Amino acid sequence: MLDPHRLSVFRSVVAGGSVQAAADNLGMTSSAVSQHLSALARETGLTLFQRAGRGIAPTQAALELAAQSEEAMSQWGRLDSVVADLREGRSGRLSVGYFSSAGAAWMPALIKRLTFEHPDLTVDLVLNELASRNITPDIDVVIDPPEGGGRAGYRHVPLASDPFVAVVPAEHELAKVRSIPLADVRGETWVSNDLAGSLGHRIVVSACAAAGFTPRFRVQAQEHFSAIAFVAAGVGISIMPRLAARLLPPEVTRIRVTDPTPVREISALVRETARPNPSAQRLLEMLLELNAHPTRRGRSADA
User: For the HTH lysR-type domain, which residue ranges apply (predicted)?
Assistant: First the structure.
C-alpha cells in the first residue's frame, strides 16, 4: 500500500517543478523530500523523475500517477477531517451535492440555518456538476433527466419545477413585453449558458425543436454568469433557468417564455442508510419548506 504522506510530497514536487520548491512549500529539507521520492519509487517500481538540465522532470508515469492520485488524496483528506471531528468532539458530518445555480440561490442561507441549529455539525459541499462519480453525498440536489430514472441507494424527493426564461438586453425591443413565444427568438443571436450535451442544453434544444426550429448559438459562454455578462454587453439573448436568472444587472431583463416553456425538474436524492441521519432529514425539510414558498427563493413572481 502506498504511503499517503510520500504521495503528498511527490505531488508537491510535480506541482512545484522541483525538489527545492516542494521543500519550501512543505517546510521540509530538500534531502527529506528526495528521500520520500526514492522510497515512493521503490514502492511503486516506477521511474518517477529523470534529469533535465540542472533539475529533474517528471516522467510520463509520474504525471499519470499524480493525476490518478488526486481523487484518492481528496478522500484521504476527508478521512483526516473525520478524525479531527472525532478528536475535537464534533458530533456529525453531512455531505451535500448541489449544482451551481441552486448553490448560489439556496445553499448559503440553508447551511447557515442548519449549522445554527446544529453547531457541532460539519457540512461538506460538493459541486456535483464537476464531482467524481465516486462521491456519495448524503443529499444530492440534482436536475432530473428528461427521460427519468433514479439512483441506486438513494430516495428521490421532488423539490421544484424551474422554468426557463429569456434574458435580453434592457434596451432590446423584446424587453417591453412580459412573455414571448419561444419561436419569436429564433432569429436572435443566441448565447449559450450551459455545456453542449448537458441536461440544461438538451432541455432548451428539445423545446426549440417542439417550436419548429434549431437554435444557433453564436457565443459559447457555457455557464450562467458569463452568459449574463454577454447579454448585458448587447451581444445577444440567452434562454436560461429562472433560478440562474434571479439576480440580474440593470442592463439585462428577463421575460417569460411560452409555447412551449422549457422546464427543468429539481429533486433531492437522499442517501438511504441503516441508521437515520437527522441532519440530512432536517436539510431535506428545509429544502421542501423553501420550495413550498416561492417568494423565499429570491425569485420574482412576475418572471
Answer: 2-59
Q: Which domain holds residue 240?
A: 162-264
Identify the CA nearest to 288 among candidates 165, 141, 147: 141
Quickly list DSSP for 135-203.
Answer: ---SEEEEEPPTT----TTEEEEEEEEEEEEEEEETTSGGGG-SEEEGGGGTTSPEEE-S-TTSHHHHH
**Does residue 1 sit in helix, strand or coil?**
coil
**Contact indicator for 185, 261 with CB cutoff of 8 Å:** no
What is the spatial distance between Cα 26 and Cα 152, in angstroms, rounded to a whole number? 41
Shared-domain flag, residues 64 and 212: no
233-270 pLDDT, tens digit per residue, is: 999 999 999 999 999 999 999 999 999 999 999 999 99
Name the β-bridge partners of 180: 257
What CATH number is given to the structural domain containing 195?
3.40.190.10
Enclosing H/E stretch for 299 = none
Same domain, yes or no, for 178 and 255? Answer: yes
Distance (Å, rounded) from C-alpha 270 to C-alpha 37? 42
Same domain for 201 and 126, yes or no, is no
pTM across the whole model? 0.71
Residue 192: its pLDDT value, please? 95
Distance (Å, rounded) from C-alpha 102 to C-alpha 161?
Answer: 12
Rounded Cα distance, 171 and 106, in Å:
30
Least confident of 1-10, 88-97, 230-239: 88-97
pLDDT tens for each residue of 63-85: 999 888 887 776 666 666 556 55
